Write the structure tokens for this entry.
Amino acid sequence: MGVPTPPSRPVHPPLGTSAWQVQSPYTVSTRLEKPASARRKVQKHEAYSDTVVSTTTASKLIRKAQRYENRGEPLSALAIYKKIAEQDELAAHALTHCARIQRDLNRLDDAVRSLTVALHHCVGDHALSFEIHTELGDVFAELADYEEAAYYYRRALGFDGGSEQVKRRLRVAHRMRYQGRRSA
């Protein structure tokens, strides 16, 4: 068999197709393109499906959760963030948002669980690890467990030793822990 020769005249798409593309000079492929209204329906369905399919869908869900938060519907936002957390790539960020909402709802034990799971998903991300450790310290301080709060503040300083806010929080946790021991 010899080498195929390119067509001598332009190749036109078959009748009835609205889009076509030439893959190489030797082959032509055609595809029927869906109308824009059908594409929008597919995208809407994808955005509201029960599972997170892709990061594109997840980013749409994040925007939806933020709208719920802005409207004062934290439970709806919490449910969406939990759905997003099922995707490993976004789990740490989604769980951090869950913990913030849980703290606002005074569900501190749930916030601790969410942040602890988030730590397992952000092993290589030092900035996010710093944020989560600081948040865990804050939650434990709210629970009046100053020893745990101090532990997580020290861990946060391991990621960013120059943070004056975390150093101040660590001093307060030590002071509160010491006062708790003296009064006991």
Observations:
- The two ends are 94 Å apart (CA to CA).
